Amino acid sequence: MARHDQRVGYGLPAILAIGLHVLVLVVSVISLPSRDADPSSSSIVQATLVSNETVTDQAQRAQEARERAAARQAEEEAKAAEEAERQAAEQAEAERQAQEQRAQAEAERQAAQREREVARQQAEEEAQRRAEEAEQQANRRAEEAERQRQAELERQRQEEERRQAEAERQRQEEEARRQAEAERQRQEEEARRQAEAERQRQEEEARRQAEAERQRQEEEARRQAEAERQRQEEEARRQAEAERQRQEEEARRQAEAERQRQEEEARRQEAARRAAEAASQSLDEAIAGEASAVANAQQGQEAANGFINLVRRAVEQSWAIPAGSNQGVVATITVRLGPSGELLGASVSQSSGDSAFDQSALQAVQRAEPFTELMRLPASTQREFRQFNLRFQPGDVR
Q1: CA-CA distance, 372 to 377, in Å (whole number)?
Q2: What is the pLDDT of residue 30?
Q3: 3-class secondary structure for 248-316?
Q4: Please, which pLDDT band fits residue 229 given cuts at 50, 70 and 90?
């Protein structure tokens, strides 16, 4: 746009200047012949009349000629000065227009430069923003990669711990089996050596104590039945109280979930500890009460029944039923014993469908071991009770 204005501004003055010069030349050409003709005519006249003119007349005419030449020269000089002034004015106008155009061009250049500077700053800001965003994304990706790496390390550590625990468990089971087998062989040898003498002594002792033991067992059975009834009532009351506490705890759980869970866990562990202590004490009492009956039973079946009753009561006293268990659930646990009554293994042969209930039954068997009363059974009966099933349902073990 500036270049177009510049062409229009210079073109018109140039045309006007050329036209003016042409006009001056034309006027000069037209005027010069007339000035040249005058002297010729005057010379002819003067030549014709030279003899009749005086010196004064010639001098006067010469003066007039000089005056006319001076006038013409002054006129031409005035015209030249006027032309020079006009050209100077035109040049000054052209220079002014050129300066205006240069100023406008400079203003446009500065505006364009400002626009480029603004655009450059915006581009730099945009580039910086994108660089910052890219850096943030890179940082986020690096953090995510680090979290994944830490998670993988944690998983590998847990897997290694699980593998080591499994290896330790297998080693302990193998060691227990080896020791149990050695103990079994030792006990079988000892049992064979003592069997005959013990059998004779037991037969005599059994005949002597049979009646007294029968009466004592009847009284003990009545006492234990009453104690069992009271225990079941206390257990039902405890379970009802635990259920009520659990419901109240559930109502407060949204506000203090973690604290209440820890308190509940502490109460459960304390209850399990008390149950274990009670089970141990009751088992000792039961052993003291039943040992004589098992050892001195008149028949192997009676001794076996006494042994099963001891196991059932010991497991019941060690059993902490999970709060909220359904009354209809039933779980069957298979128990395997060593020759001396140590627990070789306990497994869920029939699940109740409630893993917590199944686990509580397994833990009850584990807490109640060892069942050393097995050694007091007749040798022919011991093998029959090295493995048996216990049926668990809330409030009863069969």
Answers
A1: 10
A2: 67
A3: HHHHHHHHHHHHHHHHHHHHHHHHHHHHHHHHHHHHHHHHHHHHHHHHCCCCHHHHHHHHHHHHHHHHH
A4: confident
Flag whether pLDDT at 276 surpasses 80. Answer: no
User: Which pair of tokens denotes residue 165?
Assistant: 């625990």
Which candidate, 132, 100, 306, places its Cα nearest to that of 214? Answer: 306
**Considering the chain, what is the average pLDDT of its residues?**
79
Question: What type of residue sits at position 397?
Answer: V
Distance CA 194, CA 174 (A): 30
Assign 331 a pLDDT band (cuts: 50, 70, 90).
very high
- List the 387-393 sheet strands across, edge first: 343-350, 331-337, 387-393, 396-397
Mean pLDDT of 72-100: 88
Confidence of residue 373 (pLDDT cuts 50, 70, 90): confident
Say if residues 337 and 371 touch (Cβ distance below 8 Å). Answer: yes
- What contacts 91, CB < 8 A, 6 or more positions away? none
Q: Confidence band (pLDDT; 50, 70, 90) for 220? A: confident
